[in-house]
Specification:
About 30% of the residues lie in helices and about 25% in strands. It is of the alpha+beta class and about 325 residues long. The termini are far apart.
Length: about 325
């Protein structure tokens, strides 16, 4: 069995998950694989919960796991299983394999394990809240002496100094380099997107009617999350986007025109975007940020189940 990083529930399992706790379609920040090694450049220390360390949760014994078909299957990968508690009627299990982990939600009959990010109707990331109490579950790294998250800078690239606000996601995104699509006088919806993420592309396609009608302007912030899957194409294409004028970035991405040499400064821009993503605790792409009518901030990790509700909230 392979832990995978792009999380999507297919039709056979959707009915098992309540509306308020469905796995959001997104491309995750980093691989969570039992058989793919974690890669890190020199001088980078990545910390994850290890199977031989206490993760502060109740261990599910092998004998108990063997009584539940879905857990028995997960256990065959060599993972150690821990109880995360129940959320919206679903049993939550934290699986650790070596230095990698994954969260699973079990169907009531124990026959199906759903891996993914659970979010409520407002887009709040419930899974992140669940694992936040586990030491190392929110990955951290030390790069050139500065605490950072699991985002890894390209090898051979020195640290970039970027003044990224941490008081709010909206302040953080405003410090990024981004491309826009839509009228300048339309309300803005910010989206972190990996150019190689199929869910990021799907989200932009679904937003096109709202953009064309003038309801929204979408500001796309390129980030790179999937190099472990595409041999570095995520970074190359994010840098290619960031080397273009703001008004050309999104069209070039949509038209698969992200080839050619990288402009000077694009590498630094990508690192700054990654730092902004780090500050808001990005878990995957697409992630949406917007200002609501009442002045509060909206956020959705992954494509919301009710995309129109998000558009309405952002366009008021």
């Amino acid at each position: 069995m392979r832990f995978i990083s792009c999380k999507l529930l297919f039709g056979s399992t959707m009915a098992l998950v309540p509306l308020l706790a469905e796995a959001a379609p997104l491309c995750a920040v980093q691989p969570a694989s039992a058989d793919l090694p974690s890669a890190a450049p020199p001088n980078t220390i990545v910390s994850y919960p290890a199977a031989n360390e206490s993760v502060g949760l109740v261990l599910i014994s092998p004998a108990e796991a063997n009584q539940v078909p879905a857990l028995q299957h997960i256990q065959t990968s060599g993972a150690h299983l821990y109880e995360l508690g129940e959320i919206h009627g679903l049993r939550s299990v934290f699986a650790v394999a070596g230095k990698n982990f994954q969260v699973f939600y079990l169907s009531p009959d124990g026959q199906v394990a759903i891996r993914g990010i659970a979010q409520d109707a407002s887009g709040k990331n419930l899974t992140r809240d669940q694992v936040a109490r586990v030491p190392g579950a929110i990955p951290t790294a030390v790069l050139s002496g500065e605490p950072r998250s699991s985002f890894i800078a390209p090898q051979g690239v020195g640290p970039v100094v970027a003044h990224v606000p941490s008081t709010s996601p909206l302040e953080a995104v405003q410090a990024t380099t981004y491309g826009t699509q839509g009228r300048d006088d339309a309300p803005r919806l910010w989206v972190f997107a990996d150019p190689q993420c199929s869910f990021s592309r799907r989200a932009m396609q679904q937003l096109q009617p709202s953009i064309a009608s003038g309801r929204l302007q979408v500001a796309v912030i390129p980030v790179s999350l999937l190099d472990h899957e595409d041999q570095g194409l995520s970074t190359a294409r994010a840098e290619a986007m960031l080397g273009l004028p703001r008004e050309q970035m999104v069209a070039a991405w949509a038209g698969n025109q992200l080839a050619g040499p990288v402009e000077a400064g694009a590498v630094a821009s990508l690192q700054a975007n990654m730092m902004a993503a780090d500050r808001i605790g990005l878990v995957g792409t697409p992630t949406f940020i917007w200002r609501k009518a009442d002045g509060s901030e909206g956020r959705a990790d992954g494509i919301p189940a009710d995309l129109e509700a998000m558009v309405a909230s952002a366009s008021r």
